[in-house]
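Throughout our pipeline, every protein is held as a single compact record rather than as scattered files. Such a record has a labelled line for the sequence and another for the backbone structure tokens. The remainder of this section carries one protein's record, kept here as part of the documentation:
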Amino acid sequence: MKGADSLNYGWAGTILNVDLSRRKIVKEPLKKELALNYLGGRGMNSKILFDRVKSKINPFGPKNVLIFGVGPANGTLAPGSNRFTVTAISPQSGTLGDANSGGFFGAFLKFAGYDAIAITGRAKKPVYLWIDDSVVEIREAKHLWGKTTWETDEIIKEEVGNPEVGLACIGPAGENLVNYACVIAERSRAAGRCGIGAVMGSKKLKAIAVSGTGGVKIAHPDLLMKVVRENYEVLLMDESYYKAFSVEGSPSLIEMYNLMGALPTRNFQTGVFEKAEDLSGKRFVKNYVVQSKACFGCFLHCSHWYEIREGKYAGAKGEGLEYEAICGFGSRCGNSDLASTIVANELCNKYGLDAISTSGSIAFALECFERGLITTDDTGGVKLEWGNPDQIIDLVTKIANREGFGDFLAYGVKIMAEKIGDEAKKFAPHVKGVEIINADPRGPKAWALGYAVATRGADHLRAFPIGEFHFSADIAEEMFGTRDAVDLRKFKGKGKMVAWHENIRAVMDSLEICVYNAARTTVSREILEKGFFFPKALAKLIFAITGIKFDEADVLRTGERIVNLERVLNVKSGYSRKDDTLPLRFLKEPMPSGPLEGETVNLDPMLNEYYKARGWNVKTGIPTRKKLEKLGLKEAAKELHAQNSKSH
């Protein structure tokens, strides 16, 4: 790492500290060590959380730290440089939780001059934070409490006199401390996972509105444009991917996962949905899409403006609808009514609910009812049934308001299963309290491992091991030691693959680059290395923006440092190898039919390989002191060693 004498380029240079209990605002200069070792966004947030939360706390207590972070790429022309990360101790897992969102909020926060906002305490009455460049105010929000995110967005923009401000807020679900409430930016951009919206609600913080008129200083603008062009060129080489995502967006994945046999159907009872065509991206575009829409700095424009023009849901219109919501409220609930998934997702956006966890909790309840583990005595007299769109929509509203049976669903799958009993735990789809996303882990095995070890609970984006789909066997053998790494049914090489992808993804999340803008074509290694899923391109991007020369080893080491620090946070919360697992359904229950018939997940050999690749203790899954110190995590090593000594 060279040229690291200053932070003149890329970073805004300021962390904004807000104590809601004392209504105190302090601006803190960004420390060079923090920026160079963790870059920004996810990495910086995790480090701030580690530094400021030193003991086990109540996620809904005033000691929890809520952090909004952006990275060096935010506000630049880097492809997909629109993300921001929100971090806190999660009410679902009791450990590190974070959520990532796109749109324009991240760029606006950077333009206002801030790399992160760290929020502590709890307001006595509802408030919102107004940031207008250097002016920061804590404003009363009593009139906003109880409003939806859409209403809040409209009211605040009118109050500040600027319809173009970036705005992130919670809805009634966050106010009511639904365990998987989320933060919504710009009405439809969900920072969805881990219940961060509930943490925001516990602090009585309704929203953050930001207006920024500054810019981002770039060290080498010409080089940045060269890196941008190269990444675009590689993306365009993958014609099938670009066409699918620029037209259909992520809903195009419905058909792909169904053909693979990994489309979650009726709470993962099987992986093929007989009416998947009714939920397809093609059907969505043909019947409901008005036009495409892009986030800041994106040429892929994978989002959409939609409108339902006829039928009982006529009048619903807005932006968004991703694969996760279609599958979650669709096949996962046995529902083939595409329009109803649009409405359910729109309600999640308005109420501030994570669509994955909401639909996952509903689908889990449907199977429990089918098996007789819960009855109408538990549901308030309602007979739960697969494929009932009106019932699904009604339950979304009940969850947000914690009304009737919705109050039970608001706990999420883990607590629901604990309350129902041991039989329900066998098919409760969660890892560490966070609901599993919509791809059956009995399909791509690297993804299964990624769910099990993700530092924020069941998650595909921590690893996002696209190499399993898109790398050639030759590249797999060169990088991971075996051609089996790209065979979806085999287990060898998956540990090394997941560890490598996790390191890359940690850097991308810390720069705040969208995964959909990272090239994934199956051509030569030389061309692959021009895309952001390889350290060479990321190193060039970092140098172009910041002027600090990272090499490929620096990139991978930075990602490894972030993952290890997050793992330390997990271990300090009581997690170890025993928790890096999947529900028994995926480990013991063979896929009953379809292309993956007979498949289960053999997790242990993949875990062994993963821990070895990480340099962790294979028996416990805990990072060794030697590994942590090698990565410069001496304080983390000291704390972990002290904790382990006490436990023994």
Summary: Residues 423 and 564 are 34 Å apart (CA to CA). The radius of gyration is 23 Å. The chain has a mean pLDDT of 96. The first helix runs from residue 32 to 38.
